[in-house]
């Protein structure tokens, strides 16, 4: 068997000659090396002596001298390319022609390849970049000519002629004429460089000019239909003829340049709109034209830009929306618009799931998110989208809306397949692009997605219950028509059983209106001609079904107490054996405060001021009918409120300029009725500021405090059995053991921490420096 040449060379290094199996004697290694070197030198001389080598050397003679290729300057690098290419193409043609006049000469493919190899072997590193700059300059010159024609046509239409005075110079950059452009097309066609060597520079220049021009057409135009059609028309009028001319008829069809330019225009349109997507969302529904055309452009690109669009939009949401300066209602509004816009682009909902995840996480961390959502659902004046969402005719209960979109009514079969990914559901680049639809994909339920932020509707029901309680107790007219309407709509979405307590609350207010009408009639008949008009209107509630209401121990002034007792007695007769227990702190009192002043003649002039206040404020002021001056300690004894609470409540009347605040020699606070003249003087600001500071004290809401008290026994049992526990362990154990009870634990770790600190202040628990809680046992 014959040995390989490498093995022969290795053996020749250790022996003078090598004999093969056929008996041929090879020369020594040195002789073999010399022969190969000679053949290489001979080949190099033949390449050096080729005409194409000389042509390549002459092509770069003086190339790059005089500048670095600034786009706005006539530098020797890229600006000289047309003349150099024309000379090189003509010399290539004359290689096969004996005449100076070249007629119907076909360029030899070997000569063309040899010339291309010689040129690009000698080319400097910036050679391809110079072609990018030159193609860019040619395209920009063509764009300026195209714009000039458009402007002149519009001027001619307006003036009726096309005089030269209407010619417009778009900018002062050097123009590349049409003759120079045609000569370049001819030269590149002869040389054949576009197919291989200049394809990437040509593509880069086409993309740069396309993106720049489409940005001018598209940017900021959100409310006009037909922007995408205008972009495609610009591509057909400007880019396609130029590309067709430079690559040639055969290459244009063979390399599918038409589809590539179509894709490039749609891609640039998507890129421009991708940077404006946040503005499209915030301006929705005025930006519907831009959104629909962006969806169409995404279809034309085969949905390949979904991932980049999702990342870009997520960054915009985090930077421009998810920060403390944005109100929760604004974030929810943008979130709703985002749902609508992304559903338009991707009915499957996969894009929406990816983009809105930071928004959902941020809203979950805000304490007022649920309250804002419930307010928007039930507030007719400021509700907006959510108010209309609750009134949708095709709305379904949340239990059904939260099902997976793939769960059809029909049971699955063995032929079931999961839906394809976004990237696999690609459209076709044609004039008419169909939307990706599926019978198993359902329309987006905005309310279900908002509830899905927390994963449970119980939090929303509890918040609505608290808000409804405040609204019903503030409703002095006992008009519940709107509340009943909203409640019925919420029952359709959240379920009837979850809102049964709210039904009882509304019914209590309706019953209160009927009961108080009967009691007022009875009291009026008893008063007869004594003008004893009833002054008490009461909202009678079933405390079991209502959230925990604020309680504050106090004693009414006898005048107020007598009116309440009259109402209680009549209620006991009407609803025997039921009795009323007054929530003394709650309610509203309408007072007419009458003050006097003397004129110059000594006559008293009365001034009446109407004031709305709480029962505690009214009871405090009623004591000044008995005498005109009271100390804070005396008012505390009479009203059975702490002295600090008295000072805080009396600050309201100081601000109303009804009483004056001062101090006795012993330092005790004294309140005195003010005349009109004293009220106008305004000399009590110093102590009034102290009262304002007192008002700023933070306290836990009564209903929250009442609910947290229910978990106190659970916490004590944990700490007694397990010893010291951290906050997160207590929180997780409460979620585990209290979830199945009548009082479901649905508090946040922050709310639990506040309650545990309250227990520490009450000396029921102790918190170690490591954050561990221990139960204190009295000895």
From TrEMBL:
Region (Disordered): 1-21, 400-419
Start-end of Acidic residues biased regions: 400-412
Residue ranges occupied by any Cullin family profile domain in the UniProt entry: 447-654
Swiss-Prot/TrEMBL GO biological process terms: cell division
Keywords: Cell cycle, Cell division, Mitosis, Ubl conjugation pathway
Biased composition (Low complexity): 12-21
InterPro entries the UniProt entry points to: ANAPC2 (IPR044554), ANAPC2_C (IPR014786), Cullin-like_AB (IPR059120), Cullin_homology (IPR016158), Cullin_homology_sf (IPR036317), TPR_ANAPC2 (IPR057975), WH-like_DNA-bd_sf (IPR036388), WH_DNA-bd_sf (IPR036390)
Gene Ontology CC terms, in alphabetical order: nucleus
Coiled coil ranges: none
Source superkingdom: Eukaryota
Family stated for the protein in its record: Belongs to the cullin family.
Protein name: Anaphase-promoting complex subunit 2
Organism field: Cyclostephanos tholiformis
Taxonomic lineage from the root: Eukaryota, Sar, Stramenopiles, Ochrophyta, Bacillariophyta
């Amino acid at each position: 068997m014959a040995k390989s040449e490498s093995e022969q060379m290795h053996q020749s290094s250790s022996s003078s000659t090598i004999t093969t199996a056929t008996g041929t004697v090879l020369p020594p290694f040195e002789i073999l090396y010399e022969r190969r070197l000679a053949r290489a030198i001979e080949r190099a001389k033949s390449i050096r002596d080729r005409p194409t080598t000389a042509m390549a050397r002459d092509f770069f003679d003086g190339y790059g001298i005089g500048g670095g290729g600034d786009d706005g300057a006539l530098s020797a690098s890229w600006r000289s390319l047309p003349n150099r290419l024309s000379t090189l193409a003509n010399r290539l043609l004359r290689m096969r022609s004996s005449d100076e006049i070249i007629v119907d000469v076909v360029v030899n493919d070997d000569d063309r390849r040899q010339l291309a190899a010689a040129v690009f072997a000698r080319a400097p590193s910036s050679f391809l970049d110079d072609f990018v700059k030159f193609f860019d300059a040619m395209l920009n010159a063509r764009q300026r000519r195209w714009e000039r024609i458009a402007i002149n046509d519009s001027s001619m239409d307006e003036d009726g002629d096309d005089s030269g005075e209407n010619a417009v110079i778009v900018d002062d950059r050097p123009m590349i004429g049409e003759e120079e452009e045609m000569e370049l097309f001819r030269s590149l066609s002869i040389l054949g460089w576009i197919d291989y060597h200049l394809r990437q520079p040509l593509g880069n220049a086409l993309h740069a000019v396309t993106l720049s021009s489409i940005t001018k057409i598209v940017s900021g135009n959100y409310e006009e239909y037909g922007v995408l059609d205008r972009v495609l028309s610009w591509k057909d009028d400007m880019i396609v003829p130029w590309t067709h001319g430079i690559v040639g008829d055969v290459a244009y069809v063979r390399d599918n340049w038409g589809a590539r330019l179509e894709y490039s225009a749609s891609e640039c349109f998507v890129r421009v709109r991708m940077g404006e997507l946040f503005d499209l969302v915030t301006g929705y529904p005025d930006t519907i034209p831009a959104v629909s055309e962006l969806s169409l452009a995404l279809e034309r690109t085969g949905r390949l830009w979904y991932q980049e669009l999702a990342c870009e939009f997520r960054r915009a949401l985090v930077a421009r929306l998810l920060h403390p300066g944005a109100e929760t209602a604004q974030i929810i509004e943008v979130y709703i618009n985002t749902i609508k816009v992304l559903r338009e682009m991707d009915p499957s909902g996969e894009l929406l799931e990816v983009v809105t995840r930071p928004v959902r996480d941020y809203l979950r961390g805000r304490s007022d998110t649920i309250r804002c959502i419930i307010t928007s659902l039930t507030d007719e004046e400021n509700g907006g989208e959510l108010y209309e969402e609750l009134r949708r005719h095709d709305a379904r209960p949340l239990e059904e809306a939260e099902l997976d979109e793939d769960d059809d009514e029909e049971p699955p079969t063995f032929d079931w397949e999961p839906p394809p990914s976004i990237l696999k559901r690609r459209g076709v680049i044609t004039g008419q692009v169909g939307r990706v639809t599926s019978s198993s994909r359902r329309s987006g339920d905005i309310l279900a997605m908002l509830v899905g932020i927390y994963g449970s509707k119980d939090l929303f029901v509890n918040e609505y219950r608290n808000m409804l309680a405040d609204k019903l107790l503030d409703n002095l007219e006992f008009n519940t028509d709107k509340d009943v309407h909203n409640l019925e709509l919420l029952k359709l979405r959240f379920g009837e059983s979850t809102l049964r307590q709210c039904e009882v609350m509304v019914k209590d207010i309706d019953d209160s209106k009927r009961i108080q009408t009967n009691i007022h009639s009875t009291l009026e008949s008893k008063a007869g001609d004594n003008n004893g008009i009833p002054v008490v209107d009461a909202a009678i509630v079933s405390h079991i079904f209502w959230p925990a209401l604020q309680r504050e121990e106090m004693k009414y002034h006898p005048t107020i107490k007598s009116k309440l007792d009259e109402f209680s007695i009549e209620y006991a007769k009407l609803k025997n054996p039921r009795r009323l227990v007054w929530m003394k702190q709650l309610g509203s009192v309408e007072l007419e405060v009458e003050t006097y002043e003397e004129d110059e003649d000594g006559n008293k002039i009365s001034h009446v001021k109407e004031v709305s206040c709480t029962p505690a404020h009214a009871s405090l002021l009623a004591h000044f009918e008995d005498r005109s001056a009271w100390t804070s300690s005396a008012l505390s004894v009479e009203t059975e409120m702490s002295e600090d609470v008295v000072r805080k409540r009396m600050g309201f009347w100081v601000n109303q300029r009804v009483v004056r605040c001062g101090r006795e020699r012993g330092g005790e606070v004294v309140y005195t009725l003010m005349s009109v003249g004293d009220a106008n003087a305004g000399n009590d600001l110093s102590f009034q500021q102290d009262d304002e500071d007192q008002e700023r004290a933070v306290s836990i809401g009564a209903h929250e405090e009442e609910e947290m008290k229910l978990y106190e026994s659970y916490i004590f049992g944990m700490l007694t059995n397990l010893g010291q526990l951290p906050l997160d362990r207590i929180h997780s154990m409460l979620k585990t053991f209290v979830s199945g009870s009548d009082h479901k634990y649905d508090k946040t770790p922050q709310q639990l921490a506040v309650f545990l600190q309250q227990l520490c202040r009450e000396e029921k628990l102790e918190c170690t420096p490591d954050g561990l809680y221990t139960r204190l046992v009295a000895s």
